[in-house]
Amino acid sequence: MDNHFQSSKPIYLQIADQIFYRLVRKELLPGDKLPSVREMAIQTKVNPNTIQRTYSEMERLGIVETRRGQGTFIAEKAEIVDELKDRLTREVLEGFVKQMTELGLTKEEMVEGIKEFTEGG
Amino acid sequence: MDNHFQSSKPIYLQIADQIFYRLVRKELLPGDKLPSVREMAIQTKVNPNTIQRTYSEMERLGIVETRRGQGTFIAEKAEIVDELKDRLTREVLEGFVKQMTELGLTKEEMVEGIKEFTEGG
Amino acid sequence: MDNHFQSSKPIYLQIADQIFYRLVRKELLPGDKLPSVREMAIQTKVNPNTIQRTYSEMERLGIVETRRGQGTFIAEKAEIVDELKDRLTREVLEGFVKQMTELGLTKEEMVEGIKEFTEGG
Amino acid sequence: MDNHFQSSKPIYLQIADQIFYRLVRKELLPGDKLPSVREMAIQTKVNPNTIQRTYSEMERLGIVETRRGQGTFIAEKAEIVDELKDRLTREVLEGFVKQMTELGLTKEEMVEGIKEFTEGG
DNA sequence: GTGGTCTAGACCACG
DNA sequence: GTGGTCTAGACCACC
Question: Where is the HTH gntR-type domain (chains A, B, C, D) (predicted)?
Fold first, then answer.
């Protein structure tokens, strides 16, 4: 009925993630304009405050920039995207290896697990 | 006051995780007694209520059982350890593949990343 | 200080029971908002933490769902009410029959007892 | 492995219940000697303190009497048994009807439920 | 405003 | 000694 956000991760970060991923997959390009806070709030069925927070967070990270009176845009600097992708990838990878190691799995078992999971799951 | 818990994950769950990992690595065995709530609170430098919550949660999951007036013990059933390991492994794996896929990586790139990371890191 | 909770059953479960009964009797409907933790605490004259625990427990059982920053609501799925009624009824019934059997009463005597009691009482 | 007491009801009361039920079913008669605290503790695989508490509780209720140096005996007064049975029966019945009424069941549905339960269950 | 976590300190029943 | 409940009061992130 309402929106479809779950998991314990805050909604404003889940929305930021969605934008990150679209960026990384080149569905969004540097210079592209994002929907207005209000518009985005309607699309995602979320409180405008929450979108505002999403945009602020992304601006803080240098992913987007707001131009007064014009709206919010993906940062022009192209590096940003690859930097971002690299950083996210490395973070995810690091967390994964750390946890799996704590579970006592070897590198081979991790690789094996991924293969099984991406096929079976 | 100066304990070392971080991340946004609640402390009571982080402590549960620590115990899970010790179980999975066979440092704890079925039937073993856990420190009393108060003792554990001292060791981890958190409030006894927080440990109480950790223990309740673990009991709810069937990992642990309490014997009235005697303490809290790792559940006797041997299966639970393997179940736990499987569940934790699957969760980690699932999260990893999901995030990497959203970042646009293929299965091969994931495997490659792990190999690089475990050697270089 | 002067609330009216008795029995050895924990207060937080007694409050959950009250809500369950209101649900089963259709005084509460799926989607209805429950009073906030603080408000409910005032109404029932118990500590907010105790209500928090009630709400957590009910969420764990799927009776209730919390929407971040908005409050706690009766789960939308209509089935849960009937499931709940069935479960509660069965539990009560089971306990009754078990105890009466242990007291050496036959099914006929139980039925007889109920008839007498509901008329006389 | 250990003893087989469950449910949240205290062990000392569960043991008292067992004795009550044997009394009500005439398996124990007024004047019969109960096992010593120590003996009973061994039989039930429970701490002697717990049995002591059981016996104290039963003495408080007038069900048993202790004769110094001889042991613990079922109270001689025969009425005790029937009184007890009546009281227990009424209590159970009262609780049952109260709860079922709160669940919105009619007398007929209660009777029906018992019939179903004692056949099907 | 909302729910969620945490601390501090108390009390209780149980074994 | 053990775990379990409760209160008081605080702080937090989120909407």
Answer: 9-77
pTM: predicted TM-score of the whole model, two decimal places:
0.85
In DSSP notation, B42-99 reads: HHHTS-HHHHHHHHHHHHHTTSEEEETTTEEEE-S-THHHHHHHHHHHHHHHHHHHHH
The mean of the pLDDT values for chain C is 91
Among the partner-chain residues D95, D111, D117, the one whose CB lies closest to the CB of C114 is D111
Once rounded to an integer, what is the mean pLDDT over residues C37-58? 97
Which of the four pLDDT bands, split at 50, 70 and 90, describes residue B50?
very high
Check whether D51 has a pLDDT greater than 90: yes
Chain E: bases < 7 Å from a protein Cβ = 1-10, 13-15
**Between chain C and chain D, are at least 3 CB pairs below 8 A?**
yes
Q: How far apart are CA B99 and CA A14, in angstroms?
A: 12
- The pLDDT of B5-11, averaged and rounded, is 85
Q: Which two tokens stand for residue A62?
A: 């240098």
Distance in angstroms (rounded) separating the CA atoms of residues D52 and A28: 76
In the three-class reduction of DSSP (H, G, I as helix; E, B as strand; rest coil), residue C3 is classed as coil
Residue A82, H or E segment: helix A79-102
Question: Chain D closest CA to C6's CA: distance in Å?
Answer: 14
Give how far A70 is from chain B: nearest CA, Å: 29
Is the pLDDT score of C82 beyond 70? yes
A7, A24, A10, A31: which is closest to A87 by C-alpha? A24
**Mean pLDDT over residues D17-28, rounded?**
85
pLDDT at A7: 66
Statement: the CB of D49 is under 7 Å from strand E: yes
Torsion of CA A109, A111, A112, A115, to 10 degrees: 160
Low-confidence ranges of chain A (pLDDT < 50): 1
pLDDT (0 to 100) of residue A72? 92
Rounded to an integer, the average pLDDT of C6-15 is 90
Q: Answer for the pair B92, B17: CB distance below 8 angstroms, yes or no.
A: no
* Distance from C-alpha of A37 to C-alpha of A14, rounded to nearest angstrom: 15
Strand F within 7 A of B54 CB: no
From the Cβ of C43, is strand E under 7 Å away?
A: no
Question: Is the distance between the Cβ of C52 and the closest atom of strand E smaller than 7 Å?
Answer: yes
Residue D34 DSSP code: P
Beta-ladder partners of B86:
none
| Cβ of residue C89 closer than 8 Å to a chain D Cβ | yes
Q: Do C67 and A2 touch (CB under 8 A)?
A: yes
List, in sequence order, every residue forming a beta bridge with A73; answer none if it has no partner: A33, A65
Tokens encoding B55: 């223990």
